[in-house]
Amino acid sequence: MALHIVVMAKQVLDPETPLSAFRIExxxxxxxxxxxxxxxxxxxxxxxxxxRIKEAIDGTHITVxxxxxxxxxxxxxxxxxxxxxxxxxxxxxxxxxxxDPMLTVAALVAAVRKLGDxxxxxxxRQASDWDNAQVPAGIAETxxxxxATIAKAVEVDGTTVRVQRVLPDGHELxxxxxxxxxxxxxxxxxxxxxNMRGIMGARRIQPTVWSAVDLGIEPASVAPAFEMVSLTKPxxxxxxxxxxxxxxxxxxxxxxxxxxxxxLV
Amino acid sequence: xxxxxxxxxxxxxxxxxxxxxxxxxxxxxxxDAPPDAVVAAAAATVAVAGPRIVLGAKTLLGxxxxxxxxxxxxxxxxxxxxxxxxxxDGRLLATRPxxxxxxxxxxxCLGTPxxxxxxxxxxxxxxxxxxxxxxxxxxxxxxxxxVVRTRSVERVEQAAEGLRLEDARVIVSGGRxxxxxxxxxxxxxxxxxxGGAVGASRAACDAGWVPTSYQVxxxxxxxxxxxxxxxxxxxxxxHMAGCANAKAIVAINKDAGANIFKDARFGxxxxxxxxxxAFAEQLHELLD
Lengths: 265, 288
Prior knowledge:
- The complex is a heterodimer of chains A (265) and B (288).
- By secondary structure, chain A is of the alpha/beta class.
- Chain A contains 8 helices and 15 strands.
- The longest helix of chain B is centred in the C-terminal third of the chain and has 16 residues.
- Chain B has 8 helices and 15 strands.
- With 288 residues, chain B is an alpha/beta fold.
- Chain B is 27% helix and 27% strand.
- In chain B, the strands form 4 sheets. In chain B, strands 12-11-13-14-15 form a 5-stranded parallel sheet. A 3-stranded parallel sheet of chain B has the order 1-2-9, sandwiched between helices. In chain B, strands 3-8-4 form a 3-stranded parallel sheet, covered by helices on one side.
């Protein structure tokens, strides 16, 4: 039986955006013109994990799901260029990118149910905007599926998924029956670059677009968990004392003396 | 709430640290704390205790348990909070770093209960006082082994070489600016002189210069040393998320505009390859 993998991929502002270009206006992060969107890095690694499974198991089908508004098609199509088969955009004016994950989870759950035959949901361990790290958990909990987090390797064997999890001082091998949710970490390794064939192929694939109505959900009836009170740039909390010397080595020696004075060493 | 095969003395320890009621969930299924079973234990405790606020820590276990518990309770998790407060109506206000540390969000939690997890090291435990008293309530959670659906097959701990980063009083940490694995030998020597441990940025770990277990940051370890010496680390927000609670950060970087200097108590703008040997030599003289 063919394996159907869903990869959840989020379009985020490039986390490498220099701090100087990062602006907050009215409790939202304002997208400056030089802040390009990208696919969340950990989600690209989830795509990579799916492609490795596809290479091992013939007939694997990879559907990419993305929730949001204002998609940049050339960006969000990158997983297709890497080798995924389909792209479904959950796109609706109500699907704003807020800190509250309740509607996101409701929409993604509805989409997985609508697809119907999903064996495995893969996602990045967290998104580089809100760093919530909980949409996959919410999906597993709502669907009643098992979940394994922070994977550096994912293997499917029959109806079992085997996951190597990253621990702070080692690793853990866990397994669960399908259908299941797995989140992927950077230790999986770099995601592959799309090749020319992949890029051309992705151009020909039109994404499927599902609105809230298509998903059978009523956004206004999904109670939020949070209300944003404020979003601010963190204040620098320390006065920095710059240590200088005649040359770099001298500065190094003075640093040692200064730390000793402060009883830090 | 305490959960385990047997709670034992931990209940009295929690009371000594200020707990007024300890809910004890005991089950053989809770041995080695499988997240599936701990979520079930916590949900059962919430059903008995009826709290307005549920708090946990963003530890290895909390990272798995807390979001799932929140969704099981019909809400979401205010994750990785650095401070908590109550508004005038008694609603939980949770402040947490977002955008890799570039923006602090404060949210009002609307769920009943509100569920939040705290970043380790952001609050100090109340000093233990054995004179404190409290109640221990046994929760009959009736956790069946079948709740554990993600089974741990094997757990491999890398033999910790010396001091754990989380316990180190001094950390010498290296980043992309070191240019390769060799300079980490100098960092090891310096750490050993200071009785500390060596850490690294994600860039250095992803490059394979040091093992993943060295990583300090949002996706690595959260550390709270007295002294954090960052060598060749630019100070990306995601790194600072792991070390911002160090008592003093010292930055050595050749780029005067590096973000790390914003959070550093002491900074040296210079080539680490020249600064570090002289720094180490002077320390040797001072400490011998």
